[in-house]
Amino acid sequence: RSPQECSPGRVAPGRGATQCSSCLAGTFAQMAAQPCVSASPGSYVPEDEAVEEVSCNPGTFSSGGASECTLCGLGFVGEYAPNDGSTTCTISDAGHWVSELGASAQTLCEPGSFSGAGAKSCDVCPAGSFAASEGAASCRLASSGSFVDADGASSQLECPAGRFSAGEGATQCSSCERGTYAENDGSTSCALASAGFYVLRDGARLERSCPAGRFSGVRSSYCTVCPPGTWSSTAAAACVAADAGSVAPIGATFEFAIDSALVVAGTGIFGPDDRAAFARAIFELLGVGGFFNYTAVTTGDVVPRVAESTVSIESCVDSPYWRKKGAPSKDCSWAAQWAPRCTVRGENKTLAQTACSCACAEGSRRRRLDDAGALATVAFTVDATYDAAPAETNVSAIRELARLEYIDDLEFALTESLVDGTLPGLDVVVDVSASLDELDATAVTTTDVVSAGDNATEPTRCAPGKFALAASTDCEDCEVGRFQPSDGQPTCFLAAVGTFVNVTGATAETPCPEGSFSGGQAASACDLCEAGSFRSVGQTSCSLASTGFHVPTRGASAEIPCPAGSIAAGAGATECTSCPRSSYQQESGQSACRLAGAGTFVNATGATGAEDCPPGTSSSDAATSCTPCAPGRFQPRPAESSCQLASAGSFVPEAGASNETVCPAGSFSSTGQSECTLCSPPTFTDKAGQASCQLAPSGTFVGTDGATSAEACPFGQFSAAAATSCEPCPVGTYTNASGAGECRLCPTPTTTTRTGALFCDACQRGHYWDTVYFERRGRAELLEEGTQCVRCCVDCDDSDGFECDEAGIRLESIPVKRNYWRATSLSTKAYECDLSAACRGGNDTRTSRMCRRGNTGALCGSCRADFALDALRNRCTKCQQSAAILLRGGTMISLVVLLMLIGVGMLIWRYGLHPSEWTKDLPALMQRGQQAFQAAKGAASALAGKIALKLRHGEHVTSQDVRPVSQRAREIGQMLRSKSSRVSSGSPRASVSDGVATSGATTIEESKSSPPGNVDDDDDDELAASWWDRHSRSIMIKLKILLSTWQIASSTQWVLPQVRFPDVFRQAQQAAELAGLDFIKISSFDCLERVHFFYRLVFTTLFPMVLIVVIYAIFALRLHLKLRKIDDIDKRAAVRASARKSLVYGVLFLVYVALPTCSSYTFRYFGCVKYDRGSGRRDLRVLLADPSIKCGARHRRWLPYPVVMIFVWPVGCTLALFVLLYRHKNALNPPVAAADVAPEVAYHPAAVEAPTSLVREELAEEQDAVRQGIVRSLIRARKLEIRDRDETLSYFAFVFEDFTCAAWLFPVFDTVRRIFLTAVLTMFFPGSISQVAIGFLGAMISHRVYSYVEPYFERSNMIVSEVAQTQLIIIYFAALVVYASTESEKKSGVFSSEAFGIVLLIIFLMTFFVACWFIVEDLVGEHNIKAISERRRQLSARKMFASLSSGFSASKTFERLSSSGRGSARSKAAPPQTTTTTTT
């Protein structure tokens, strides 16, 4: 049969359909045989099989194909739909609100509230702002001169007179300070009281003029009485001096008793104590008077009274027209809330208590006084003093003035100071209105008048503020603008710029107050700054208001910023200009307005901000309104400059739309379409709003046939297009998004440690992962920007001491190289350890794991308990038993040195402190030993021969055979004992040690062999006797050079800790520290008692002092015992002098040795080092000399001690040495003339026969040069002889005995050099190469100075010094090279090898070898013979001079010149005759 049409509301599902299906809800078929159509936007179809659509009601909307309409307002913004069939909801406008769901209209915000676009409620304007009308989009700030003191205000209130507000948004007004006032309501600033006027209290409305005889400056709070000799008229800014020849009268001082009374409530508590408290309260209310001073208040009688009302409450009617001036909202009800308000004047200048009598009487008198108690009148008397001006002589007028001023003061106090009518500190309520009415009857009694002085005319010295010219009879006051601070002066000084003097006879100038200025000198008053300018403290003139600021009044002390919405384009503005339409300014104090940006508009002047265009509109720059979007376009966001085209997959049916409608799933549309097209099979769309149908893209997969959507790959996996599954990202790649089509390669040097990574979380080999940086910045960059943290990977080569041999190493587990240390697991730096094998390395930063057993602290540089530092081995070693402690290397050396010191002490006890005394018996002892040896050798040979002969013949050896040998031994013993006694009693050396010089010689002295050489002169005995003295002095000088060199060379280990010398050289440096008496450092006393740096500092700096005291005690005891055996006075004096010399010599030697070590220890206190702790924490600061001590509070508590020791050792010793040498400079370098040492050699040129004058001139020059050289040598010898014989210098000969007389100040340079290189160098750029370079420069300068000065008089000592200086230069140069070398060279190069250390060790011992060579040469070599001969020639100057001068005869010189072949004429000349020179 023929096909049938489906009825309306039904549709055939497809071809070959056997029945019709109903149209589903949201679709309808209006006619038969028509397909089902989706409900259009703004309509809905609620049921199946519908034949028409229904329009949405107001307050609802639909976007098309809907089965029901959606209520407006379901989101976070206020929306409404005013009409039927709405396709979208309209956002509420600014100044409106919509709070209900399904609203069809928006509501205006009430006055005092505001809202923005899309608000669901209105916000209350905060205090300081208001909204005057309905529908406000924002609140206006209270303008300058006004305030808003509560939230939700609809208007602003003007500040009353006497108060002001300077800027916008004030919540209350500020009272004008004393000296300023505000005459009108709504003031933005307070005016300064003019000169001649005053303002007594805060909150004043007017200024008052000064009466005659008084004056005031700008901003004065009271008027000052003109000083004697001056006067003034009313409102005077300055007092004028009396005319010449006249003396102005002096004003009087008046005392008043002012009788007063107050009506109060609460009289039931008025006992004696209450009355006293009442008097104190009244006195505090009155405060400090202006024209007169209140001195006391005494309470009188208390008279009870009936609390009657002068107004009939029942019949009176308050005026409905009274309003507070400047605040029309405040009426009679406001005035009744507090009694003092009833004294306020209204707009018509009527008092509130007059116009509002009912409210004031009811609110103040009845409600408050009746509740407080019975009324009473309290009488009291106020005592005051008044300093009258000279013109004020009318006592009645003064009394009336005092009464009026007192009434004004008390009225002000009662109306301004009372809180709810209650006196401060008392439960007493004052009836203000009644009390003020009765104040008119106040009585003022003058109790006394005190004269201010007389008119004396006697000539007196002009007082300060006055002057007199020559021949004047009267003193004149300094004029206005001038002052004089001193008395008896002829002129006055001009007041400087910025100050003024407004009185005559002034003693000082007064700075102009703020807001005023004086343009030049001698100003008598300060002028107010004009409007548009101001002056603050510290300025000398008025400054124009800056751009963006204004000054509306004269006398301003500060500029006022223009409020938001206004500007001041130029400087010196008196008012601000409002910003025009299309512009705004949201900040105060600006000079230009900002144009409204694109997407915003400004439609009013004085705007403080631009309003955003609502969704569905747009605007360009500087717009005054917004333009709706054209059809086919939309704009979902506010504040946009243009509208967007409907995107593909969406459509926009109407103009002015704020959003686009998305095509549902299964459909698509191109750009600008008004309806969507259904997709045709077999494609699919996975979501709504598609422009076309497509296959599953890369990064997604479809696992089944007929899918309507493609599923995205999860994080860490990827897929290509049309994939059936996703694969994890391989190692080294990552993906941090779902639906990834491929994995990203990690940027070098980052990587991953597993497959399927979301981000690169590890580093490649040679790097480590900085966890701290990742947590601080890397994670945020990864989450916010998707950037991989490349900076999290740190190159291990940038951090010495780290090992990164594997990938994936993190900061907290990074392995540390052996002999390196780091503070925490988050430290980014590793530090090389100072002690050998102290740091284990590894990735565990705990001290027990990082440090070797026995080490602890920073750099593992401290020893644990039961461990001690072995300085020679440079490591912490286990403490053994007490006996084993003594066998440790450093301790053994310390004990050996200690035993040596004990031996030296024994020598001191026996012979004295000077080393020459120790060897005085050495020649005799050697002679006795040689004789005893020869005798014993002869006896033994005879015995051996006799025994051998008997044994050969077979005979027995008996005791008789041995008896002769025993007898010979006894004879030798007797000989030795007799010779020993003679040596000790008769030796010249023994007598010298006892302080007495004798001329006798003993057998041993006679038998002593003379020094080698052929010496036959009379001086040979003297030379032989002084040979040992000279020998010991030479050894001592070389020892001093060696000690100072070793002290400086060994100090580099703590002065330059950044330099790592080889271990063999460092061990030598440790051992050499004995040269500075640093026993604690190289010994193991830590095993006995823990000794930290502070104790070592105290021991090192005090030990030499204690040792000096011990030496002094030994000498004192020895001298006492020796003097007991001597009766001769001369001998006793000689013994004392000898002992004193020896004591001073020993003390100076001890100070010389200890000075560098003590100085170094004091400066090492300041050597703190920092170690990185990572993670932004504060660095670990420890003491370099003792890592167990932190540089904190404990370290700072010890600061005074090293400071004192610096002044004791390096500074004090150096200054003492300089003063000592300078005081004896003439004795150390005695003046010696040429005539004192050698006679003049007279040459007679006429007696010399020479062929030419040229030959004669050359002969004369050579003879003069020889003579000058001889004279210089004799002068040096003579100076040494004079210095050596000077007994005043013998006490401190140790200081200068090394040097020549010309180098008398050189010991100071040597001391400064040693202190600088061993101690002071630590303060110059510690730890840097600059410090090493400065040390190298110091060594070079020292070498140059020694080479130039040549301070030593013996050549051998000079050579040893040259070697020592060269040794120091080489060591500092080696330190510079080692520090500047690369890390690889330090660890495995030539500078870390044992060979380099041996070379440095040889250089270190070079001075020692050279010194020993010269000492041995002095003992056994030919050098000794030459020295004795040289000394003998010095003692025989005349003989030497004659022999030298006789060798230069004219004949020999002429023959030498003639034989040189100078021309044939000379060779042919006759030989000259020889002429012998004569000596006078």
In short:
With 1480 residues, the chain is an alpha+beta fold.
Strand content: 5-15%
Q: Portion of residues in helices?
A: 25-40%
Query: How many beta strands in the DSSP annotation?
Result: 80
Tell me the structural class. Answer: alpha+beta
Specify the biggest β-sheet. 5 strands, antiparallel
Give the overall average pLDDT: 75
Question: N- to C-terminal separation?
Answer: 177 Å
The geometry reads as flat
Give the count of helical stretches: 38
Instruction: Report the uncertain regions.
Output: 307-315, 363-372, 451-459, 881-893, 911-919, 976-1027, 1240-1250, 1422-1429, 1431-1480
Q: What is Rg?
A: 57 Å
